Amino acid sequence: MEFLCASSEGRISIFGVPFDATTCFRPGARFGPDGVRFFSENLEDYSPELDRSLFNVAFKDLGNVEVPSSPEGMVKAVELFMEDVEVPVVIGGEHSVTYPVVKSLVDRYGEVTVVQFDAHADLRDEYTGTRFSHACVMRRILELGCSLVQVGIRSGTREEFELMRSSERITYLRSLRELPEFLGRINTPVYFTVDVDFFDPAFAPGTGTPEPGGFSPLEFFEVIYKLPPALDVVGFDVVEISPPLDPSGITQMLGAKIVRELILSFWG
Ligand SMILES: [Mn+2]
Question: Are 63 and 8 in contact (CB under 8 A)?
């Protein structure tokens, strides 16, 4: 099954990374890519807020990357897959899948600003015996030389929050409303990573590590619509959607709508 309105051409490529081997609490995100594709069938191609349709944007759905169960193997497999991808739209999988995608983009563009919507800082140096855990992904991305903009973070260790406050390459935005103005001052290519636990568990219960006190989909989309039109967006991902924990489907449906609205906002 392909994502709604996918075609055989275009420089934008959707692909899934069905990997959740480092998930510490409740796995299931490996079923995210196919779940989001299934629920995309229930979406309209047309976004009334943007007055744009997916039929007017050429994008492919390349299916899922074949990933081994080791995090190091996953990183290699996704990096290899990225060689044939110009503009990635990635459906996870757990958050660790973001690392090899951003690494490939940094190799290509030299400098990338990563905007992270998430409940968790993901800045641990090591977790459960691996440095490629989903709890370490933003620490690894910092090591690539990226600037990091964190939005919605409300969970982490004291050390992670101290790093957030002291690092010159991390900007922590307390309010969603500050994001458009902040990104208006950025000159580098930008990559967006949306961990679905950024949203309040009331709106997105189908995720492995829910964290109360999050944002609503309406607040998120209103900010996306206000982003500067000249922003050089080189890709995005939606991660941590776990279909086994999402019997009503609303989290997968939210993931599908994020994919549609971000494609239409950035490249429509
Ligand atoms: Mn998270």
Answer: no
Distance between Cα 232 and ligand 1 center (Å): 25
HSE-up of residue 132 (Cα within 13 Å, Cβ side): 16
- Per the CB < 8 A criterion, the answer to whether 35 and 241 are in contact is yes
**Is 35 contained in some domain?**
yes
Going by C-alpha positions, the residue among 151, 215, 201, 217 that lies closest to residue 178 is 151
Kindly give the distance from the C-alpha atom of residue 8 to the centroid of ligand 1, in angstroms, as a whole number.
33
Q: What is the pLDDT of residues 217-226, one digit of tens each?
A: 999 999 999 9
What is the value of pTM for the model shown? 0.98
Query: pLDDT digit string (tens) for 145-166?
Result: 999 999 999 999 999 999 999 9
- Residue 1 belongs to a domain: no
Q: What is the CATH number of the domain that holds 25?
A: 3.40.800.10
> How many domains is the chain built from?
1
Ligand 1 centre from 121 Cα, in Å?
A: 7
Q: Residue 119: which domain range?
A: 12-267
